């Protein structure tokens, strides 16, 4: 059974930092592109950052220079370091695992963790 368990969310003041973690099980973690997405109230879920199995990263323009995604394949964990947080970063943050095989694509989601930034 695949599980993605996020942690590290909470309430922080604008300008502060948080580090999100996502521990994965039941998947071949090292072969997955891992990502963080977020969904604010009344808005669609949006990409925050992804990190491929080889380590290449991709960021939404809104978080470039402030957020850093990383992964530890030995621990089956992906991280999101969030600095200089703004009120508009308030959202539920979801961990995502994405893997392609020759015949099928597998996508998994965590349950989400709330991040609230007070201005």
Folded structure, characterized:
- With 119 residues, the chain is mainly beta.
- The chain has strands spanning 3-7, 10-13, 18-25, 33-39, 46-51, 57-59, 67-72, 77-82, 91-100, 105-109, 113-118.
- The strands form two sheets. Strands 2, 4, 5, 6, 9, 10 and 11 form a seven-stranded mixed β-sheet that branches. Strands 1-3-8-7 form a four-stranded antiparallel β-sheet, with no helix packed on it.
- Strand 5 and strand 6 form a beta hairpin.
- It is globular.
Global shape: globular
- Count of helical stretches: 0
* Biggest sheet record: 7 strands, mixed
Structure class = mainly beta
- Radius of gyration, whole Å: 14 Å
Unreliably modeled segments: none
Report the helical percentage.
Answer: under 10%
- Quote the average pLDDT: 97
Instruction: Give the number of DSSP strands.
Output: 11
The ordered H/E elements are EEEEEEEEEEE
Tell me the β content: over 45%
Note the gap between the termini. Answer: 40 Å
């Amino acid at each position: 059974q695949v599980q993605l368990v996020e942690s590290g969310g909470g309430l922080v003041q604008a300008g502060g930092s948080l580090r999100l973690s996502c521990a994965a099980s039941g998947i071949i973690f090292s072969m997955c592109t891992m990502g963080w997405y977020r969904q604010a109230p009344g808005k669609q879920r949006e990409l925050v950052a992804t990190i491929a199995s080889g380590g290449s990263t991709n960021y939404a323009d809104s978080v470039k220079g402030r957020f850093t995604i990383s992964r530890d394949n030995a621990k089956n964990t992906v991280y999101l370091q969030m600095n200089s947080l703004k009120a508009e970063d308030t959202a539920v943050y979801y961990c995502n695992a994405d893997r392609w095989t020759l015949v099928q694509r597998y996508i998994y989601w965590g349950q989400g963790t709330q991040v609230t930034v007070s201005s």
